[in-house]
C-alpha cells in the first residue's frame, strides 16, 4: 500500500476550470430526439427486470466514462488524499465544467448523453497524458511502438438514428491497447422484442407498432503492456422505452453497468485498493449495493469451461430503477440513481490510475509476458463465448463490429496443456483466487 501512496502523491493538483469546455450534443442527436426541452427529473421508473441482453447489446462495445459525483459522496481510500483535490497528470478526477452544465430540467436521456460525451474526452486525455509521459523502452525499436501514441478518434453515425465515437489507442508504451467508446442511439423496438421484455415485466403493453427506445452507453477496456499492470473494464448504460403519445414521461427506464479488474499477477494491495474504492462509491449512496453488486460481478465474469473467473471482480448491476429490489427498502429517485452512476463510474480514474503508476515501470521477464498473453486468451474466451452484449452484437445485422470487438486485446496466446499456473508459483497464486473469489473490502 505504501507504493500506492507514492503513486497518488505523484498526481498533481490543477485548476478544474481547464477541462471539458464546449460540451454539446450534435445536430444528429437533436434531430433524432423527440424532445430536448424541459422534463421532470426524479421520475418513478417502470421497473423492467428484463432487457438485460437487449439494452446492453444495443450499446455493446461502445461508450465512455461518466463522472465522480460533486456531492458530499467523495471517497477516501487508504493511502490516498481526498479525491476532490487530486488529479491525474493534469486532469481532475471529475470534469467540473461538465458537472456545472448538467441541467436537472432536461430529460434523463439528454443528461446522460452530455455526460458520456464530456467524460470520453476527459478519460482519453488523461490516458494520453500518462502514455506521453512514459519514457521509451526496449520495445521502442518495434515499428508498432515508435513514439508516444494517441487515441484514434473514430466518430460514426447510425443511419437508423443516433451517433457514437470509438476512441482506440494501439501499440502504446504503457497501454498496448485501450478503447474508450460512447454510443447514443435511438430507434424503434419491434413487437417481438417487446414480448421478450414483457415476459419479465407484465406492465408493458404489447403494441402492434414498434415502440421508440433510447440507449446511451459507454465502454472502456484497457490492456496495458506491462504484465504487472492489470487490465480493466468499465461499462455504463441507460435505456428507456418512450411513449408514443409525445409525452416526456418514459414508458420504462433503467441504468446498468459495472467495472472489473483482470490482473496477470496478483498484488493483494492493488486488489484491496480497487475494491475499497468501489465500495466507498457504492456506500455513499446505498449500503445494500456493494455486497449485491460485488457478488453479481463474481458470478457474471465467470468462465464455465475453465471453472475460473475472468479476473478479481469489482461490481456489476443492471435493471436499476426506482422500483428495483436492488435498492432494498429505499426508493431512490431517478436523479439519485443518476448520481450513483456518476459516482460509481467517476471512481474509475482514482481506482485504477494509482495502480498503473505503481506498476508501469516494473521490469518483466519473457515468462511473465508469456503468462500475460495466456491470461489474455482467457479474456478473449469470456468475451466471445459468454459476454451477452458481445454475443448479441455479433449476431445483429448491421452491427458496428469494430466497436464491438474493441474490448479484445491486441495480442493473446493459447498453449496446449500449458505448464504455467501450477500451485506454488506466482501464476498459481492468481489461479487460486480466480477459482475461489475472495472478499477484498
UniProtKB/TrEMBL annotation:
<dbReference type="GO" id="GO:0006782">
    <property type="term" value="P:protoporphyrinogen IX biosynthetic process"/>
</dbReference>
<comment type="similarity">
    <text>Belongs to the aerobic coproporphyrinogen-III oxidase family.</text>
</comment>
<dbReference type="InterPro" id="IPR036406">
    <property type="entry name" value="Coprogen_oxidase_aer_sf"/>
</dbReference>
<comment type="pathway">
    <text>Porphyrin-containing compound metabolism; protoporphyrin-IX biosynthesis; protoporphyrinogen-IX from coproporphyrinogen-III (O2 route): step 1/1.</text>
</comment>
<dbReference type="GO" id="GO:0004109">
    <property type="term" value="F:coproporphyrinogen oxidase activity"/>
</dbReference>
<keyword id="KW-0350">Heme biosynthesis</keyword>
<dbReference type="InterPro" id="IPR018375">
    <property type="entry name" value="Coprogen_oxidase_CS"/>
</dbReference>
<dbReference type="GO" id="GO:0005737">
    <property type="term" value="C:cytoplasm"/>
</dbReference>
<dbReference type="Pfam" id="PF01218">
    <property type="entry name" value="Coprogen_oxidas"/>
</dbReference>
<dbReference type="InterPro" id="IPR001260">
    <property type="entry name" value="Coprogen_oxidase_aer"/>
</dbReference>
<comment type="subunit">
    <text>Homodimer.</text>
</comment>
<protein>
    <recommendedName>
        <fullName>coproporphyrinogen oxidase</fullName>
        <ecNumber>1.3.3.3</ecNumber>
    </recommendedName>
</protein>
<keyword id="KW-0627">Porphyrin biosynthesis</keyword>
<keyword id="KW-0560">Oxidoreductase</keyword>
Amino acid at each position: 500500500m505504501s507504493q500506492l501512496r507514492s503513486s497518488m502523491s505523484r498526481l498533481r493538483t490543477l485548476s478544474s476550470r481547464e477541462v471539458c469546455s464546449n460540451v454539446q450534443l450534435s445536430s444528429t442527436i437533436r434531430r433524432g430526439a423527440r424532445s430536448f426541452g424541459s422534463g421532470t427529473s426524479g421520475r418513478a421508473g417502470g421497473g423492467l427486470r428484463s432487457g438485460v441482453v437487449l439494452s446492453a447489446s444495443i450499446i455493446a462495445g461502445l461508450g465512455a466514462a461518466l463522472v465522480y459525483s460533486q456531492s458530499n459522496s467523495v471517497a477516501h481510500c487508504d493511502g490516498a488524499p481526498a479525491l476532490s483535490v487530486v488529479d491525474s497528470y493534469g486532469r481532475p478526477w471529475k470534469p467540473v465544467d461538465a458537472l456545472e452544465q448538467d441541467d436537472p430540467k432536461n430529460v434523463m436521456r439528454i443528461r446522460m448523453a452530455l455526460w458520456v460525451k464530456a467524460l470520453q474526452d476527459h478519460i482519453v486525455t488523461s490516458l494520453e497524458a500518462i502514455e506521453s509521459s512514459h519514457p521509451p523502452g526496449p520495445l521502442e525499436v518495434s515499428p508498432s511502438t515508435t513514439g508516444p501514441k494517441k487515441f484514434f478518434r473514430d466518430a460514426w453515425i447510425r443511419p437508423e438514428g443516433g451517433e457514437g465515437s470509438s476512441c482506440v489507442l494501439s501499440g502504446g508504451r504503457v497501454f498496448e491497447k485501450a478503447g474508450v467508446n460512447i454510443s447514443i442511439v435511438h430507434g424503434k423496438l419491434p413487437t417481438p422484442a417487446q414480448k421478450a421484455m414483457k415476459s419479465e415485466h407484465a406492465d408493458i403493453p404489447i403494441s402492434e407498432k414498434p415502440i421508440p427506445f433510447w440507449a446511451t452507453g459507454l465502454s472502456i477496456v484497457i490492456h496495458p503492456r506491462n504484465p504487472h499492470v492489470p487490465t480493466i473494464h468499465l461499462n455504463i448504460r441507460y435505456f428507456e422505452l418512450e411513449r408514443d403519445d409525445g409525452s416526456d414521461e418514459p414508458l420504462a427506464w433503467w441504468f446498468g453497468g459495472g467495472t472489473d479488474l483482470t490482473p496477470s499477477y496478483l498484488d493483494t494491495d492493488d486488489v484491496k485498493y480497487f475494491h475499497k474504492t468501489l465500495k466507498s462509491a457504492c456506500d455513499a449512496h446505498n449500503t445494500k449495493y456493494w455486497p449485491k453488486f460485488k457478488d453479481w460481478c463474481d458470478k457474471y465474469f465467470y468462465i464455465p469451461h475453465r471453472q475460473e473467473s475472468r479476473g478479481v471482480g469489482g461490481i456489476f448491476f443492471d435493471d436499476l430503477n426506482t422500483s428495483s429490489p436492488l435498492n432494498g427498502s429505499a426508493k431512490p429517485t431517478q436523479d439519485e440513481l443518476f448520481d450513483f452512476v456518476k459516482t460509481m463510474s467517476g471512481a474509475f480514474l482514482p481506482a485504477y490510475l494509482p495502480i498503473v503508476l505503481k506498476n508501469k515501470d516494473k521490469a518483466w521477464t519473457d515468462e511473465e509476458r508469456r503468462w500475460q498473453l495466456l491470461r489474455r486468451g482467457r479474456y478473449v474466451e469470456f468475451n466471445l463465448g459468454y459476454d451477452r452484449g458481445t454475443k448479441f452484437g455479433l449476431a445483429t445485422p448491421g452491427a458496428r463490429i469494430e466497436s464491438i470487438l474493441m474490448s479484445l486485446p491486441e495480442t493473446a496466446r493459447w498453449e496446449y496443456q500449458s505448464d504455467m499456473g501450477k500451485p506454488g508459483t506466482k501464476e498459481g497464486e492468481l489461479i487460486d483466487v480466480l477459482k475461489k473469489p475472495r472478499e477484498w473490502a
